[in-house]
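Re: the 144-residue chain
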Amino acid sequence: MFNRQALTVLAALLITAGLAAAGTILTPPEALDQAKAGKLTLIDVRTPAEWRETGVPEGAATINMMDPKGPDGFADAVLAQVKGDRAAPIALICRSGNRSSRMQEALEARGFTQVANVKEGMSGSAAGPGWLERKLPVTQCKGC
């Protein structure tokens, strides 16, 4: 039988594991500030049509998550963007935070260790108003 102390330790471990599994979340202003400061690579995972429609977050790389090789191809493109460093800090953004959340999980499953999600996305979500409503800077997508 477990004693009270063992149950407390087990509960703490389960809570910690749950928090770690949830992944890191950044607000759009946090992502912008950290990207500008060179503390992370911001990656817009939307499609070229979406990039053309709204523009791209200032300073963000554009890597379409719909890679013909699937999540492995996407991970390879991200790895090339961060010069082969799976420990490089990365933040992903999409329209509303759903696709970037899935890509966050996909990258973590492939050994990336510092992947954040901009959960509000470009257009906003339940997490907040989003990049565009916050009137954060965007640039036109070159070559889209």
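Confidence is low (pLDDT under 50) at residues 1-21.
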